[in-house]
Amino acid sequence: QKESKWSRNIRSQTNRLNTLVKQLLSMAQLDENSVQLPKETMYLSVLLCEESEAYAEILRERGLHFQPQIKRGIEIRGNREYLKQLVHILMDNAVQYANEGGNITLSLDKRALRNRIKLTNTVEHLPSCKPATLFDRFYRDDHSRTQKAGGCGIGLSAAQAIVAMHHGKIEAYYTQPNTVVFSVYL
Fold first, then answer.
1. What does the pLDDT average to over 130-150?
2. In this model, does residue 145 exceed pLDDT 50?
3. Which of 26, 33, 121, 171 sits CB 3.0–4.6 Å from 94 for a disulfide?
4. Alpha-carbon gap, residue 120 to 66, rounded angstroms
5. Rounded distance between C-alpha atoms, residue 66 and residue 107, angstroms
6. Is 121 within 8 Å of 98 (Cβ atoms)?
């Protein structure tokens, strides 16, 4: 039986609201200072490789060129589930906003005493806002484009909270030609 345009739209909106509710619950948990999340020592290199592999099909479908540059053997003490969520937020964001046939690079290296995760993606047009604004809760640069792409405007705010929970730092900046860069220091 064929699915009508109306039922596809209902399914899309339901999925979008489901994602928003999950993200809001996650943000509420991260906002509670009293919550102590369990941390363990793990290989950040392995986690990044495993989690980014989940995007192989969608990257291929969109014609995006993915270049992982993940240094092996880098360890971290952190919460595995929230670090997985961090990787997914950054990858989802890159896939959503990368231009058709664009480039996405995910790298991991050691900078002084910190590990640096760096994710870059090319875009059709750079956002009109200052890079720090991208982390504002519910901020979306172009409402029609982000609604169509499924954005809720909360993912990068959640990423910032996850990084803060790990006593790290996250920043965004733009480079030419039309590239958005996220650097996470843990």
1. 63
2. no
3. 121
4. 10
5. 11
6. yes
